[in-house]
Amino acid sequence: MELPEILANPGVHLALLLVGVLGLSYITNYTLPRIFTGMTYRYLIAPGVIIHEYSHALGCVLVGARIREIRVFDERGGRVVHEEPRLALGQGIISVAPVFGAAIAVYLLALLLVPGFIGLNEIQISSWQFFVFAYLAAAITAAMAPSKQDLKVGLASFLGIALIIGLVAVSPTASDWFSFLLGDTYDRVVGIMQFSLIVLAVVALASGIVFLALHRTVRKGARYRSFD
What we know:
The chain has a domain at 3-37 and 92-215. The chain is built from nine helices and two strands, in the order H-H-H-H-E-E-H-H-H-H-H. The protein has helices spanning 3-7, 10-35, 40-44, 46-63, 90-113, 128-142, 148-169, 172-182, 184-217; strands at 67-71, 79-82. A hairpin with a 7-residue loop joins strand 1 (67-71) and strand 2 (79-82). Helix 4 (46-63) crosses helix 5 (90-113). The protein starts with a helix and ends in an 11-residue tail after the last helix.
């Protein structure tokens, strides 16, 4: 199978969009906390933080890991404390659960707030629902990427799951079945992911510019004087 055929595969197309969203999520999680210090950043993306942590909790339920504690907002950030999962790949599923939880949440919000939205050309920018959806999509996708701790404990399982999905996605038979199974829903999912990618790219670009400007003005070892 040649590269153009692989890239035209519906599953691969969605996977590439997801990789782009995850990359921008890591960028915003690096720049925004350095602009909005303390708990301000976490409150700014509160919908995403809540979905992130409770997606971990749902992952625990699915793999049979008893939950001991759930915290959404504290000084060290959100966390879910749980026992060992019963499934072999359970820890990997728990670690990457926020990726799928965020994707499902954004999709359901699109159905609720912009029900006629299929592609980027159909959305009504002038409506208040658009701005609410844009904020929620940005907040949720900004918090969807697995944290360092998530990757530390579940990276091996995550890579195994990603490899299996990747091998299935490039199969012509699986691709045809995937297109048939989703039908028109595939176009909606792609449109929503493209929209989320654009919104998150704008946030990442703006926060990156502000971060670089602040980084240049506040230099290590600089001394300041105040005048009354």
